[in-house]
Amino acid sequence: MAVSHRRGNAAYVIGVVSGAHFLSHLFLLAFPPLFPLLARDFGLSTTRLGLLITAIYVPTLLFQLPIGDVIDRIGARHVLVTGITVTALGITLAGFAPNYPLLLACAFLSGVGQSVFHPADYALLDTVTDSSTEGTAFSIHTFGGYAGFAVAPLVIGSLALTISWEIALIAVGLVGFGYAGVVHLTVEAVHTQAIQTRKSDDIESSSNADESVRETIGELVTFARRFKMLLVFSFYLLSMMAVVGLQSFTTVLAVDAYGFDESTANTLLTVHLTATAVGVLAGGPLADRLPFRHVLTTMFLSAALGVWILVATGVPSLLVTGVLLSVIGLLIGLSLPSRDKFATVVADPGTAGKSFGFFFTGLSMGAVISPVLLGTVIDRFSPPVAFLLVGGFLVAGVVVVIVARVTGVGHPVKQSTQAND
Question: Could you give phi then psi for residue 411, rounded to 5 degrees?
């Protein structure tokens, strides 16, 4: 019996969904390891390189909410398969792009597919877990995503340098098509079945379905008018601006400012992202044992100091650069579970899903703003100046936490668990 239900088994679904999250983050970081090569081949400014990242995140800002509503109606599995396929198509076509405008269009197309991952992943995880297992499921899912970030510079950068950046993008895109087939063929439609069961219990749900998007948007607008929700939204936005800045421009800093070659630059980015993934795993128990405000304040201030030391050293050695980037990544990773604990504390009971939809909109907005802003700063000034600004984002996040503390936002702590991005 266990074998016959393997495809709907919680452990199997969690594993496959976490694998999809791994691919999602691999695709999100497909372009930054290639920035020095793309700049050379297409004659691109850093601002235009940053626009590639913005083009990926804009669709998540626009489409994540309506896609979430579609998932609530028809189920998550088919939507997830479609999202993986569209993302893989965008990355694969980017490998054939003969010019920058088409490369930008491919990045946008991949972002349309990316809009699916969070709502579909969490819908599936929520279906196969309960309060006793959701924490572990979310932790595995989060680690899968950051593992994808860590692998991207190593795999894509190495392929690009040994063969070509075109082949690198095509190869990882084809992997995405294969994984979409795995999800389609091996994962049971557990979420669709749950929806059908719920509808049979509430025959009025279908008659009210057309109003669900409008109601959800109305609730999000209401959230935006509430001070405590805006604080968390701002914190998510600022944290994402710092994280995406580090992910997008570490290779630019290493090559243009410090004179390392492209291979070394990608290795440094991998080291940073691997440390972040390790930090995420260790940060869960830390968030359970210490007040989230203390963790966020300590980790963000220490990470900002690390970024500024990296800049202040001028042209550091490879060892110093690697150690500093590792420490910065570890500190940020340690903070992420506490960041989401901040959010769960503020969210009203019974509104966690919509609240996190609002907070994740802040993440998407930060990811849209940061690459273009920092790219422009790099073009007008230098990469070190942009990284000074990254440290500033982290300090601004600490200010938000302090304001929340002073105004009493986040009391009392609720017993709740949520996932990281």
Answer: -115, 140
Reply yes or no: is the peptide bond before residue 119 cis, omega within 30 of 0. Answer: no
CATH number at residue 385: 1.20.1250.20
| Residues 190 and 222 occupy one common structural domain | no
Taking phi over 0 as left and psi of -120 to 50 as alpha, with beta for the rest, 259 belongs to left
- Mean pLDDT on 159-183: 93
Contact 81, 180 (CB under 8 A): yes
312 CB burial (10 A radius; 0-12, 13-18, 19+): exposed
Where residue 314 falls (left for φ over 0; alpha for ψ -120 to 50; beta otherwise) is left
Euclidean distance between CA atoms 117 and 110, whole angstroms: 12
Q: Which long-range contacts (CB under 8 A, 24 or more apart) does 378-383 make?
A: 378/46, 378/47, 378/249, 378/252, 378/256, 379/45, 379/46, 379/47, 382/256, 382/257, 383/249, 383/252, 383/253, 383/256, 383/257
* Residues of the domain holding 395: 212-421
Q: pLDDT > 90: what percent of the chain? A: 37
Under 8 Å between Cβ of 374 and 242: no
Tokens of 280: 């995420």
- State pTM to two decimals: 0.76
User: What pLDDT is stored for residue 5 in this prediction?
Assistant: 45
| Dist CA 365 CA 387 (whole Å) | 19
pLDDT digit string, tens, across residues 139-154 = 778 888 888 988 988 8
For the chain, counts of helices (H) and of strands (E): 15, 0
Tally of CB atoms within 10 A around 212? 14
pLDDT category at 204 given cuts 50, 70, 90 is very low
Q: Among residues 177, 202, 227, which one ends one of the domains?
A: 202
Which of 127, 154, 160 lies closest to 39, judged by CA? 160
Q: Domain for residue 207, yes or no?
A: no
Q: Please tell me the predicted confidence (pLDDT) of residue 416.
A: 40
User: For the segment 41-75, what is each residue's pLDDT rounded down to a tens digit?
Assistant: 999 898 899 899 889 988 888 887 777 777 777 77
Distance between alpha carbon 294 and the CA centroid of its chain, in Å? 23
Tell me the residue ranges of DSSP E strands in 157-281. Answer: none
> What average pLDDT does the chain have?
81
